[in-house]
Amino acid sequence: MPSVLIVDDLISIHEMLEAVIQPTGFSTAFATDGEKGLARYKAEKFDMVLADIDMKPMDGITLLKQLKAYDPNNVTIIMTAYASTESAVQALKFGAFDYLQKPFRVDELIATLKRGVEFREIQAQRATAHADAGLKPADIDGRMVGKSPQMRKLVQQVKKLAMVRTPVLLVGENGTGKATVADILHGVTGAEQAKLVRIDCSLSSEKSFHEGLLGQNGEGGPWVKDAKGGTLFLQHLQCLAPPVQKELVSVLRNTAHGFRLVCTTTEDLEKMVDEGHFNDELFYRVASLPLHMPALRDRKEDIPELVKHFTLRATNPLIDTNLIEFTDDAIAVLSAYHWPGNLSEMSQVVSKIASTAETRVVTSQQLPLRLRELKLWPTMSEYLAGQERQYMDRVIHACRGDKAAAAKVLGVDVSKLG
Questions:
Q1: Beta carbons of 49 and 67 less than 8 angstroms apart
Q2: Distance (Å, rounded) from C-alpha 272 to C-alpha 280?
Q3: What does the DSSP assignment read for 193-224?
Q4: How far apart are CA 299 and CA 293, in angstroms?
Q5: Where are the domains positioned within the chain?
């Protein structure tokens, strides 16, 4: 029988909640303030905590923070009597499973508790699957190349997140490897048949979101159903239109615990929230665990290893790519270049050289002229204009002709879009 610890300073609330919760198959226990609730949780360990936000001496937000510090997988549902969602959104920011606004309906309460139970069960199944499968850290290390401090930190974060199903927000420039991290997180789901459903928000119309993601009555469409047990991967989240952002909140509230949610952005979503351009509740539902993807120019010590990695991935009918070497002067040029396209650009450059090389040794003179001549190095916008113009035009179209929005997605000045 699932157990719920109810923390509220009103005995009448205890009695009311006990009367409506217990008949639905939950056991209940009580505490009259945050301090007592924390002590009782540590002593007895409950499946869920249902806590009021307005208590003394320890309020619900402080209790939530301490519960998360003690048990990161803790499921806490916050109750708030405030008319606005500001306090509830703050609770999501600190890891609340969900929130309920008083007065709430009994069916809403029970449905939220059941989702909490489902989430706990998924977490337990995930831990068992990892124990049986024996998650291999080397599998992650092999795909996330680099020993720089930034990469060591990122790899450790990914390894920790591989063990939980909490939503993840990947933040970084285009080409920094966000899709690779999403693939890694999906690959350790423990279910071979699970799908990774990839949606590019910059290229999906509002109509396609309604049909594929939102579905009927906020229950989720075919994209959500396909992702059940697997991963829903939303790229360029900052491109979602405001109406879709609001509706997506409802979908995630009802369905998000049936799959792993991974989102990416090239923008500072918190700043967009402050400016009124992004839904605050959606932000805190997806950004409780942001991972910042470093640009290649900020971890140049990884370039020699990356060159070897991309060389081995290439195929050359004339020379075994295991034998191809880049001279020190070639590595120096590659390390000095600022890589506006990040890993995507490096992969393209190195793979092309390795796959077409006629000699085993690659010197700096065999590198593209734009890499060797500092004055010829393109800006990010010039790089995109020269090599990804078609993609850029598609982004402009997806943003409904709004070049300012498209510029944010592409990371270029709007004046460069013509």
A1: yes
A2: 9
A3: T--EEEEETTT--HHHHIIIII-STTS--HHH
A4: 11
A5: 3-128, 137-292, 296-376, 380-417
Q: Is the pLDDT of residue 140 over 90?
A: no
Per-residue buried b or exposed e for 330-342, using 16+ beta carbons within 10 Å of the residue's own CB: bbebbeebebbbb
> How big is the CA angle at 413 (ends 410 and 415), to the nearest 5 degrees?
120
The three-class DSSP label of residue 48 is strand
Closest CA to 258 of 358, 368, 374, 165: 165
pLDDT at position 177 over 50:
yes
Q: What is the 3-state secondary structure (H, E, C) of 125-166?
A: HHHHHHHHHCCCHHHHHHHCCCCCHHHHHHHHHHHHHCCCCC
pLDDT exceeds cutoff 80 at 122: no
Question: What is the pairing mode between strands 76-80 and 48-52?
Answer: parallel
pLDDT at 138: 55
> Phi, psi (5° rounding) for residue 360?
-70, -30
pLDDT tens-digit profile of 324-342? 999 998 998 999 898 989 9
Q: What are phi and psi of 291, to 5 degrees?
A: -115, 125
Fold match between domain 137-292 and domain 296-376: no
CATH number belonging to domain 3-128: 3.40.50.2300
What does the DSSP 8-state code read for residue 178? H
How many CB atoms sit inside 10 A of residue 378's CB?
16
Given its phi and psi angles, is residue 218 left (phi above 0), alpha (psi -120 to 50 degrees) or beta? left
Task: Give CA–CA dist 136/139, Å, rounded.
Answer: 5
Confidence (pLDDT) at 377: 60
CATH number for the domain running over 137-292: 3.40.50.300
CATH 1.10.8.60 assigned to domain 296-376? The reply is: yes
Residues 6 or more apart whose Cβ sits within 8 Å of residue 109: 17, 20, 21, 100
Closest CA to 407 of 378, 418, 345: 418
Distances (CA, A) of 361 to 316, 358, 387: 13, 9, 27
C-alpha 331/C-alpha 94 separation (Å) is: 44
